[in-house]
Write a structure and sequence with these properties.
Elements: H1 2-11, H2 19-26, H3 28-37
Length: 60
């Protein structure tokens, strides 16, 4: 992924993932830990984009 990020920067293209994707991909681990600690209680998944994901065009 690091190579692809550098390649995208060099070519002036959008990276494969953005900071919001990275945050969303990282969230399930800590949320699972909190859920287990709370007796398998459901956890609210945060919207790191504050709703902007609905207006963002797909990369590609």
């Amino acid at each position: 992924m690091a190579w692809r990020l550098v390649q995208a920067i060099r070519e002036g293209k959008a990276p494969d993932i953005d900071v919001y994707d990275a945050a969303a991909w990282s969230a399930p681990g800590p949320l699972s830990e909190q859920s287990v600690a709370a007796g398998s209680a459901p956890m609210k998944f945060p919207d790191f984009t504050r709703g902007r994901w609905e207006r963002t065009a797909p990369v590609g």
